[in-house]
Inverse folding.
């Protein structure tokens, strides 16, 4: 079966996650310690703070064909570095604008606040991203590189 | 040349039972620059460490990738291992294939193995460009701060002071003592609470190493482990505490005497506008309640304020103002305790329908010989004799819609109260305890429970559906006893609710000031549920007592001593190593635009006027990476977390 024969929902999306060390990465760890099962589609990159996620990371991931990107940070007010998550939120707005201009789908980028005690929320977030991304279908960028 | 070794841990069957380890070893050994790959049952064990050390020597490895559990768990362990073998500790990278893989994809072995491969490939790719780094030394401040002076804060302060350290103890209320000061007797030994607490309070007051800051609050915390700058707000007591000798004549003549609700007595008694919370208060100094004092509210109190007239020492000072104090400490212990859940939110318990439906904390004040009735138990509504009392456990606790957790002291408090009532009122009084499960887990608790169970107290397993107040004031409820399978009708003169213990109302503000986390239950979160019960996510900040979760006095004291010894581990050192994974500037690229200076929350970036370069203050920088993401010319570099490294990891995923 070639790529094109697959129906949209058949495909397994590739999700890249940038999780801040203090809250969201710890939340993902807790999902593990609590043995909460979620789809194996996400690959996590640990960063110190959601505010350190450069727009370039997100663009690069999408251009290369990742089907979705998650940025996970501490809840507003709880950032270990005071206000990194506010920076992330501001950048998110810009990033979505840029993606739209480039003809990419801004819905592929997710920003979520997940605390160190929210293992369930992390697992639910991954499930949600995978489901929603299946509805969107594969990232068209992947096809373009295949020309 | 880079030579990478990959070490794959089975973690028993935790990883090995899901991920195909042989396939993973095979895959890893074929990755670029990997010269050695192996697996072991428990990489973090001593023999596991030996496997790593021997391989470093034999294969002259320059970078090490450990593929196991979360780096938040064992990164320091493996850093020390490779350091022992002569490598720089920052030449380690970890791939988390347990928490992020085998544990969460248990039934998907194939996908989990594939994911593990990719996680290893990402880590290997990043490890190629890891740089050996050197930690900085920073000087440590030897003083400590303790926030909250309940039994936990008192214990922690005394431990530190006894070890020779200077302690600032900040308490919000005019007196130290916390909830324990409100208790009458303590289970299971029934020692009188103030008899064991008051001497400790006096020790705090007398200790030359403790500076007591009551009626004060922490408003700001800056800096990091070993060197915190703290701002403390000292609220005005409107009494000069240097002059006040605690004689109490002022409270006797206050025009508001007997008219102000007494918080210490949980509203069961009345006090004056000038007051001490209780007679054994430490410090024994009077405070004027600014919301009740006529003079402070309206500038007038009859002809002249009687408290001022009667105070021979001239201690009353209506002009007193709030003061800010700055402290510099090396470590902080938080011990701010708990609040009681307000039963008013739960209509079925009828808390506001009758003054004879009270909480267990109110009951403590009612039965206390220093309480508003001097320990005499009478109906609160009409002063009539009490012939029957019912206790309702788990009010708001163990309830998925309210608080899911167990309050851990409710069962024992009700058993204690049943014992004391029998003691005070004799055999005639009819006692019922409605419980969910009796949890008597502490030392000596089960034995105490047996004493009550074998006596003539009725234990009913069930929660009443609704509590009704009759016209004659008596209280009725139906409860289905799941042990006897009978619907019982219970009539009582007094009903004692045992509500959930909840976090302090303002704990969210304090957690933001201290940059520590809260759990889903709202209590402060420890950094590991088993192994680091007193640590928080912020180095140098520790938690003790009920602010971390409901617990009894023995557990609160044990955790407090634990927190104190953790704090000692910091403040008794001369220097600390600070993390070198911070920002660094490529001076050839930086144009001094100053964007980084604006985004840095720690004022760690500063423009050098001479060179025109935005430099990094290595001590102030915490390595958050905010400036690195903001730098428009890519001149800022996050050591060992560089943009190139992260982009390479992304390449590896896709
Ligand atoms: C009805 C009842 C009966 C109990 N009986 C027993 C018993 O018999 N035996 C037993 O072992 N346990 C008993 N307990 C449990 C016991 O009360 C607790 O274990 C103990 O009080 C916990 O002490 P703590 O220091 O952690 O908290 P607390 O006693 O709550 O002390 C916290 C202190 O911090 C202060 N504070 C709060 N916020 C701030 C802030 N932001 N800044 C500065 N200061 C602040 C508070 O004013 C308070 O003084 C009982 C509890 C209840 C409710
Ligand atoms: S540290 Fe979690 S968002 Fe900043």
């Amino acid at each position: 079966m070639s790529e094109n024969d697959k129906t949209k929902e058949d495909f397994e999306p590739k999700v890249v996650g940038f999780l801040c060390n203090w809250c969201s990465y710890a939340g993902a760890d807790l999902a593990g310690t609590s043995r909460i099962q979620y789809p194996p589609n996400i690959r996590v990159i640990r960063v110190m703070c959601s505010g350190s996620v450069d727009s370039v990371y997100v663009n690069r991931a999408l251009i290369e064909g990742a089907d979705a990107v998650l940025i996970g940070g501490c809840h507003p007010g709880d950032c270990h570095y005071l206000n990194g998550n506010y920076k992330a939120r501001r950048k998110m707005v810009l990033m979505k604008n840029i993606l739209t201009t480039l003809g990419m789908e801004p819905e592929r980028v997710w920003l979520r606040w997940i605390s160190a005690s929210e293992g369930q929320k992390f697992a639910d977030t991954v499930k949600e991203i995978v489901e929603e991304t299946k509805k969107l279908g594969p990232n068209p960028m992947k096809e373009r590189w295949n020309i | 040349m880079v030579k990478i070794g990959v070490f794959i841990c089975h973690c028993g069957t935790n990883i090995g039972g899901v991920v195909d380890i042989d396939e993973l070893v095979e895959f890893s050994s074929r990755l670029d620059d990997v010269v050695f790959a192996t697996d072991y049952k428990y990489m973090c064990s001593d023999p596991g460490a030996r496997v790593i050390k021997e391989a470093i020597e034999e294969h002259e490895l320059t970078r090490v990738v450990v593929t196991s559990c979360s780096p938040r768990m064992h990164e320091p362990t493996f850093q020390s291992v490779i350091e022992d073998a002569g490598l720089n500790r920052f030449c380690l990278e970890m791939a988390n294939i347990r928490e992020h893989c085998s544990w969460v994809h248990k039934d998907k072995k194939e996908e989990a193995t594939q994911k593990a491969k990719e996680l290893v490939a990402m880590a290997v790719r990043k490890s190629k460009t890891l740089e050996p780094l050197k930690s900085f030394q920073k000087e440590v401040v030897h003083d400590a701060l303790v926030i909250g002076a309940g039994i936990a804060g008192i214990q922690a302060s005394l431990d530190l002071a006894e070890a020779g350290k200077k302690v600032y103890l900040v308490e919000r209320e005019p007196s130290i003592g916390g909830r324990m000061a409100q208790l009458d007797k303590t289970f299971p030994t029934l020692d009188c609470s103030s008899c064991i607490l008051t001497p400790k309070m006096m020790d705090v007051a007398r200790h030359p190493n403790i500076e007591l800051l009551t009626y004060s609050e922490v408003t700001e915390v800056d800096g990091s482990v070993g060197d915190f700058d703290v701002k403390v707000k000292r609220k005005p007591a409107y009494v000069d505490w240097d002059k006040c000798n605690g004689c109490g004549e002022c409270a006797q003549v206050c025009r508001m005497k007997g008219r102000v609700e007494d918080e210490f007595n949980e509203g069961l008694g009345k006090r004056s506008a000038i007051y001490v919370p209780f007679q054994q208060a430490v410090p024994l100094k009077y405070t004027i309640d600014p919301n009740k004092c006529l003079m402070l509210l309206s500038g007038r109190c009859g002809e002249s304020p009687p408290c001022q007239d009667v105070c021979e020492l001239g201690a009353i000072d209506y002009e007193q103002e709030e003061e800010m104090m700055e402290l510099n400490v090396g470590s902080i212990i938080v011990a701010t305790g708990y609040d009681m859940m307000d039963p008013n939110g739960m209509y079925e318990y009828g808390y506001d329908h009758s003054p004879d439906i009270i909480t267990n904390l109110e009951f403590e004040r009612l039965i206390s010989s220093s309480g508003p009735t001097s320990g005499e138990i009478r109906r609160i509504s009409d002063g009539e004799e009490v012939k029957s009392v019912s206790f309702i456990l788990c009010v708001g606790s163990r309830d998925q819609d309210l608080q899911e957790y167990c309050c851990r002291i409710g069962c024992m408090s009700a058993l204690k109260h049943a014992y004391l009532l029998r003691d005070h009122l004799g055999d005639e009084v009819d006692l019922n305890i409605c419980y969910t499960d009796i949890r008597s887990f502490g030392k000596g608790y089960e034995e105490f429970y047996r004493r009550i169970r074998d006596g003539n107290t009725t234990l009913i397993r069930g929660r009443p559906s609704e509590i009704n107040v009759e016209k004659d004031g008596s209280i009725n409820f139906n409860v289905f006893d799941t042990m006897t399978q009978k619907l019982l009708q219970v009539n009582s003169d007094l009903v004692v609710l045992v509500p959930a213990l909840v976090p302090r109302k303002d704990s969210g503000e304090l957690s933001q000031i201290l940059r520590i986390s809260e759990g889903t239950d709202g209590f402060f979160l420890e950094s590991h549920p088993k192994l680091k019960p007193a640590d928080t996510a912020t180095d140098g900040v520790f938690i003790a007592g009920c602010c971390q979760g409901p617990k009894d006095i023995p557990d609160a004291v044990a955790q407090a001593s634990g927190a104190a010894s953790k704090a000692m581990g910091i403040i008794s050192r001369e220097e600390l190593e600070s993390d070198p994974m911070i920002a660094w500037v490529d001076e050839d690229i930086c144009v001094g635009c100053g964007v980084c200076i604006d985004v840095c929350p720690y004022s760690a970036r500063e423009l050098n006027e001479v060179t025109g370069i935005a430099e990094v203050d290595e001590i102030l920088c915490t390595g958050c990476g905010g400036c690195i993401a903001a730098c428009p010319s890519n001149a800022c570099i996050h050591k060992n977390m560089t943009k190139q490294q992260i982009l390479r990891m992304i390449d590896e995923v896709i």
Summary: The domain at 4-127 of chain B is CATH 3.40.50 (Rossmann fold). Residues A 20, 22-23, 49-51, 73-74, 79-81, 84-85 surround FE2/S2 (inorganic) cluster (ligand 2) (CB under 6 Å).
